[in-house]
Specification:
Elements (H helix, E strand, L loop, with lengths): L1 E3 L9 E5 L2 E4 L2 H4 L62 E12 L2 E4 L5 E5 L2 E11 L8 E6 L11 H4 L18 H13 L3 E4 L2 H8 L8 E3 H4 L12 H9 L12 H20 L3 H15 L10 H9 L1
Parallel strand pairs: 4-9, 9-10
Antiparallel strand pairs: 1-2, 2-3, 4-7, 5-6, 7-8
Helix pairs in contact: 6-7
Length: about 325
């Protein structure tokens, strides 16, 4: 493997390491890559005195232009979608939700005792991501609502859970202005490194699937805010919390999941939690959720259009 070594007086800084053989090579040989047998690799070394010293000055020179643009294409953007007007600042709150499709099936192994073991989970692909303003006069209005173009075959659109239909991610048939995965990822990367705080429901799993690391200090997850604690390991669904606390029906019908609606609901739940916390009613409310949730199996009644009356009956 060619390695660059500072060596004054030598015509070339490049050396080839091949097991125990080390010899100087011309720069043109070191920098020429034949993909059939040669792949580039970078080794970075750090002096001991610089250990644990992080230079993040590059964050002050980020180009936020991408955040001010709407997806371009033949279709009109959603009427509520408007780009940001100013550069995000550290601590700025935004609400986020993402939807995924399956690109490969899970590999399941049948054991001798008849049980099943998942050898490899399904591979998921980011299909849609929505980011809403968390504060200000335009709070809850989206500035990102990207559908991602996927070139490889989708084996399951998971429509009941994603709200994504066949054809939505194909540039030749989609009714949306699609963006590349790189563009969608870079927007999230910019927001992350500009220090915004992401509000959502079940974000740890979403970020893991997107393959982006977000520090806990930049995450407000309503799954954790409305945790049942030691009483149960059950994670309360966004649909149940919206029904019980906000008296709203969400995720209705085929393809009922909508990342704009879900992120807006998570934002409203966070605001509700702030109200309860300020009034000292978080614990009391969680007791009510626990008791009433057990009665109905933590499932939202299917009676449509009568949410307010049902919840009033439950909590009265």
């Amino acid at each position: 493997m060619p390695v660059s070594i500072t060596n004054e007086g030598n015509d070339t800084p490049w050396h080839l390491f091949n097991d125990f053989l080390v010899r100087s090579i011309p720069s043109e040989d070191a920098l020429r890559f034949d993909v059939n047998w040669k792949l580039p690799a970078v080794l970075a070394y750090q002096v001991k005195s610089a250990a644990k010293v992080i230079d993040d000055s590059w964050k002050t020179n980020l180009d936020p232009t991408l955040l001010y643009q709407l997806p371009r294409g033949p279709h009109k953007p959603p009427p509520l979608l408007r780009p940001l007007e100013s550069i995000p600042t550290p601590g700025l709150q935004v609400a986020i939700d993402a939807e995924f499709v399956a690109l490969s099936k899970a590999e399941i192994e049948l054991r001798l005792d008849g049980t099943h073991e998942t050898v490899r989970p399904p591979r998921m692909g980011l299909a849609r991501v929505s980011v809403l303003r968390g504060t200000g006069e335009e709070a809850a209005s989206p500035f990102i609502d990207d559908y991602i173009a996927i070139s490889e075959p989708v084996i399951d659109y998971l429509t009941a859970f994603s709200g994504i239909f066949p054809g939505d991610l194909d540039r030749s048939t989609s009714r949306h202005n699609l963006v590349s995965l790189k563009a969608a990822y870079k927007k999230l990367w910019l927001l992350l490194n500009m220090g915004v705080v992401f509000i959502g429901h079940g974000l740890i799993k979403d970020f893991r699937t997107i393959n982006i690391h977000v520090p806990r200090s930049q995450v407000i997850d309503t799954v954790d805010l409305f945790s049942l604690g030691a009483r149960s390991q059950r994670r309360l669904s966004l649909k149940f919390l919206a029904w019980f606390l906000l008296k709203e029906e969400i995720q209705e019908g085929e393809g009922g999941h909508d990342s704009v609606e879900d992120s807006r609901t998570a934002l409203e739940l966070y605001q509700k939690w702030l109200e309860l916390d300020a009034a000292g009613l978080v614990e009391v409310t969680m007791e009510e959720i626990w008791e009433k949730g057990k009665e109905i199996g933590f499932k939202v009644p299917t009676t449509k259009g009568n949410v307010k009356n049902i919840v009033d009956d439950l909590v009265s």
